[in-house]
Design brief:
- The chain has 450 residues and is of the alpha/beta class.
- Helices cover 36% and strands 22% of the residues.
- The chain has 14 helices and 17 strands.
- The strands form 2 sheets. Strands 1, 2, 3, 4, 5, 14, 15, 16 and 17 form a 9-stranded mixed sheet that branches. An 8-stranded parallel sheet has the order 6-7-8-9-10-11-12-13.
- Strand 1 and strand 2 form a beta hairpin.
- Helix 2 packs parallel to helix 3.
- It starts with a strand and ends with a helix.
- Zinc ion binds next to loops.
């Protein structure tokens, strides 16, 4: 059984229940699980591999709760740069229509690598387009090579323009094939065990692109298979208007009417939820993926994260799609969340530790997992390890943990998932990043220029 020792780390942010922060401490892991944490002098075991963690800061691997990896092929697209959500989407749909399976693979590989290099060890992805024969396995294959945990959200759209929806008809799938493929991917790929590296999630794109009936069927299917549910909700004012106009309900009421609330459900954004809806989310233990950069980029609004946390709503962070971010840096999202909540509520109303909690344990709870997001005995050996000697940390010895979000944003020296080093000093362990970047670039050029 493979063992790993992280020896004498200068700082460890555990995110355990007592919010312990350790100095000059070590972590011993066996077969991908943390077995011991403490003073190296007291360790009885010898490890197969040791990382000398002097001058390093170790935190739980970051957890990303919302993304659309394919969008990194159309970052900063000029015609969509300055539009709010609906205009941004309708500008990009015609380009996304040309995606082929190898595009889904390479965008997933690069997008996951980008997150791993910045400290993320678990990501979900909301893939709601499957044009030209693309399949969920195009992403799953990429996740295996990257070595991170993956919550593959099988998304879909069923209401095209001709039926009053937003996407072009050519990008929507018929309901029968959606249902069949959802069953297929759950039965083929979902691993529900503890320390799972791959979970399947059912994820209709949004209330403005999926029928009411299919939303209900999806909820029933998810409960039958015990998988989670995910979608976009209450992202901006246009979204609220659509809900009132088409369903005569606010988004929270709509979600409730479809049985889309509960511990096994998380919604992206929720910027415009009102007080009653937030209470409902707290009461039902429904999770929220807060995506601050995307919300600012699309001018959707400032989500009331402070109030959500105080009410007991489960909140994690998402980078959101790379065409509305246009980055995949979760530690930076943590920083953005910190700054945005301070802007809304005041400088003393949101602190750095809370922002880091959103990116780690908060995200784990949103994904309905209790085995990640924390450095404690019995939890997964997933770590983001940063070098305190890099320029971004210079002058921060009074509080290097806070520096993770107040300074930077920084990349990791090591990212470890399931006890394996998956990136080191900016290099991915299992593939040549430069070669893959070339492929990514040519895929992007083909989509944009043809
Ligand atoms: Zn999204």
């Amino acid at each position: 059984m493979k063992t790993l020792l992280i020896k004498n780390a200068s700082h460890i942010l555990t995110m355990d229940d007592k919010e312990n922060e350790l100095t000059n401490s070590s972590i011993f892991c066996r077969s991908g699980v943390i077995e011991w944490v403490g003073d190296y002098k007291n360790l009885k075991e010898k490890a197969d591999h040791t990382i000398d963690a002097k001058d390093l800061i170790v935190i739980p691997g970051l957890v990303n709760t919302h993304h659309h990896l394919f969008q990194n092929l159309t970052r900063v697209y000029p015609q969509a740069q300055d539009k709010p959500l609906f205009g941004w989407l309708t500008t990009l749909y015609p380009i996304w229509q040309k995606l082929i399976p190898s595009d889904i693979y390479i965008s997933s590989l690069i997008g996951m690598a980008e997150m791993v290099l910045t400290g993320c060890t678990t990501t979900s992805d909301h893939q709601y387009l499957f044009p030209n024969g693309s399949k969920l396995e195009d992403q799953i294959e990429a996740a295996k090579l990257v070595g991170c945990r993956f919550h593959a959200a099988r998304g879909f759209m069923s209401v095209g323009e001709s039926q009053g929806g937003l996407p072009p008809d050519s990008l929507v799938e018929d309901e029968e094939s959606i249902i069949k493929d959802c069953q297929r991917v759950i039965e083929t790929f979902n691993d529900e065990k503890q320390f799972s590296m791959l979970k399947v999630v059912l994820a209709p794109c949004s209330p403005f692109s999926v029928s009411q009936n299919l939303m209900k069927i999806t909820a029933e299917m998810a409960r039958e298979y015990s998988v989670s549910l995910h979608t976009h909700l209450a992202e901006n004012d246009e979204d609220i208007e659509y809900s009132k106009c088409h369903f005569d309900m606010r988004p929270g009421e709509y979600a409730e009417s479809l049985n889309w609330l509960g511990d096994d459900v998380w919604h992206a954004h929720c910027v415009k939820l009102n007080d009653n809806e937030s209470d409902l989310f707290a009461k039902t233990r429904t999770g929220i993926a807060h995506c601050p950069t995307s919300n600012m980029r699309l001018a959707s609004g400032i989500a009331p994260v402070r109030e959500w946390i105080d009410k007991g709503v489960k909140v994690g962070l998402g980078v959101d799609g790379s065409s509305s971010n246009d980055s995949g840096h979760l530690l930076n999202e943590s920083r953005q969340a910190l700054l945005l909540q301070r802007l809304k509520y005041g400088a003393d109303k949101f602190n750095g530790r809370e922002a880091l909690r959103l990116a780690t344990k908060g995200g784990a709870k949103v994904l309905n997992r209790n085995d990640i997001g924390e450095i404690s005995v019995g939890k997964a050996a997933d770590f983001a390890i940063y070098d305190l000697k890099q320029i971004d940390f210079s002058g921060t010895s009074s509080d290097p943990i806070a520096a993770l979000v107040f300074c930077g944003p920084v990349k990791t020296k090591f990212t470890i998932c399931n006890g394996n080093i998956i990136s080191e000093n900016g290099h991915m362990k299992k593939f040549d990043l430069n070669l893959s970047l070339e492929k990514h670039s040519s895929a992007s050029n083909r989509l944009i220029n043809n």
